[in-house]
Each structure stands twice: as C-alpha cells, then as structure tokens.
Amino acid sequence: FDQAVDDGVDVISLSVGASYAPPYDSDSIAIGAFAAARKGIVVSCSAGNSGPGAYTATNIAPWILTMGASTVDRDFPADVVLGDGSVHAGVSLYGGDGRPEGELLPLVYSAYCGSRYCYSGYLDPAKVKGKIVLCDRCGNARVEKGASVKLAGGIGMIMANTDLEGNELLADAHLIPATMVGATEGDKIRAYIESAASPTATIQFRGTVIGEGTSPAPKVASFSSRGPNRVTPEILKPDVIAPGVNILAGWTGAAAPSDLEIDPRRVTFNIISGNNLTIFTSSVKKFAIG
Questions:
Q1: Could you tell me which Pfam families the record lists for this protein (predicted)?
Q2: How confident is the model over 97-155, as pLDDT tens digits?
Q3: Residue 235 DSSP code
Q4: Predicted confidence pLDDT, tens digits, the chain (290 residues)
C-alpha cells in the first residue's frame, strides 16, 4: 500500500483478504487502506468467496469499497440428455475430442463406484470404464473429478451440485467431455439412474450463448461472501457487486486452463469466477492491482 501511494496511484484494487474479518486495528489490509484513503486514493477489495453464509464478508472496513460477485448473461450450455429423453441444463468449457455428439452411453453414479466425490484413485475401473460418471461436487477441485474419471477409464462426467451450492453453475475447462448441473437436476439424474435398468446419457455442447444465462442478470453469486458486517454491524457490507461468474480473463502460459499438472493444454484466455473487480475510467491516471 505504501509503495502504491508513493507511486501516485489513483485507485488500488486488492483481490486478497483474511479467511475472516479481524478487528480493524489488527487487519493489515484495513490499516494499509486507511493510509491510502487519507491520501484520497480509492481502495476496492474483494468481499471473499466464502458465501452464501452470513457474516462471511472480509475487507469490511468503512473506508474500503467492498465488492461482491455477480452473474452475467453469458452462458456455455452443455446439457445432459438421458436415455428417457429428458434434458437437464448444464455448463462446460470443454471443446476437445471425444464428445458424445448425441450418442447415448452407459451412465453410472460414482457413489456406487468407490467415491461419491470422484477422488483420484478411488474409482473402480471395472465399474467406470467406457461410461459417463455422475460425480457429486465438493471434496476436491471440480476439474480434478474429471481427471479422476479419465484415470479410471471413464469417457465422460456429469458433476452435480449439492444442496450447499444450489443451482448456480460455473463453466470449467474439463479434461474430458464433462458438464456441471445444478442440485435440482442432479437429484433428477440420480433418480433416473436408480430407476432405469440400463441408464444411459449423452452431453450436448452448444458453445458460447448470449442471452440464455442468468436472467435477469446480475444476480449475487452463491460463492460470494455475505454480510452483515461482523465488526461494525451498522455499516452494510459488501457495498456493491460486480461481474464475477464465468468471466473471460487473460491466462498465464505457465499453467493449464484446468490448473492441473497433468493437463498439457496452454491458452491465452480462460473463463474464471471469483470476487474480482476491474475499474475503467478516463480520469484514472495510475492504477494498482494486488
């Protein structure tokens, strides 16, 4: 903060924070932001990715512009079509080879194959090989679940939200043909697997679609940290929301789009989600990003 002030910036945007909101006099970000604010510098910080529980917002000092994350009206549909003809909305960034393209393939639930959350090394290849696997979200990274299915010989994955995540969908650059569905759709797919003698499914990838996303947009993202303000309840936090779900962003060539070491792909841009803020204004001469 001190260096940014010395450099003469007009705005400081900081997308880091503590895991909880400490008292202001022991919060290094609040202290640094106060010094910057005294110089007339706008300080914007992320509220955090610990929602949707109450009192999860961080960077909540009164002199900080605290940002939450919201959805946008851009989507990456990858719908699940079951053997009974029902269609269940999903999203995915996968664009590689091996997509089912309408072909119905055997479908299994990972809970019956060794690991409900598709932990790496826990899935039984004898039950997974050549099939699409339904995995439950949580426990490990979303894209890691697909890598686990691939390692066990599976050829596709459906990742279903639990009740904790609800029906909000995040598009990921999966390693295999895969999609994410909401909690409601996940329950329907599990019920189909339980009732069908030989359950089958396919995934229909539709690329980028504008106007079919969350409507009306914006809507607060489920992962976006919430108030009330833990330290000063009478001051509402977060202050505002900004686009933070499925955002097109520059990506380093030092890491794969899935961020997995086994992923050889390299891209210039990626779709990411989180509490980040970008400010564009002609009056800003210098801008510091942390």
A1: PA, Peptidase_S8
A2: 777 777 899 999 999 999 999 999 999 999 999 999 999 999 898 999 999 999 999 99
A3: S
A4: 999 999 999 999 988 888 889 999 999 999 999 999 999 999 999 999 888 889 999 999 999 999 999 888 888 999 999 999 999 999 999 987 777 777 899 999 999 999 999 999 999 999 999 999 999 999 898 999 999 999 999 999 999 998 888 888 888 999 899 999 999 999 999 999 999 999 999 999 988 888 765 566 688 888 899 999 999 999 999 999 988 888 888 888 898 888 888 888 898 988 888 765 444 443 445 555 55
**CA proximity to 162, closest of 182, 141, 132, 133:** 182
| Whole-number Cα distances in Å, 86 to 35, 141, 178, 183, 200 | 58, 28, 18, 16, 11
Contact between 261 and 233 under an 8 Å Cβ cutoff? The reply is: no
Report d(CA 109, CA 125) in Å as an integer.
Answer: 13
Evaluate whether 113 touches 157 at the Cβ level (below 8 Å).
Answer: no
C-alpha dist (Å) from residue 6 to 9, 18, 38, 283: 8, 25, 13, 19
Structural contact between residues 74 and 84, judged by C-beta atoms closer than 8 angstroms = no
Of 58, 64, 63, 53, nearest to 229 by C-alpha is 58
145's enclosing H/E stretch is helix 142-151
Asked if 171 and 246 count as a contact pair (C-beta separation under 8 A), the reply is yes
C-alpha 68, offset from chain centre: 14
Tokens of 115: 């690991």
d(CA 52, CA 54): 7
Q: Which residue is associated with the tokens 């890691």?
A: 144
The DSSP secondary structure of 164-175, one letter per residue, reads TTTT-------S
Tokens of 250: 């520059």
Two tokens at 194? 């339980």
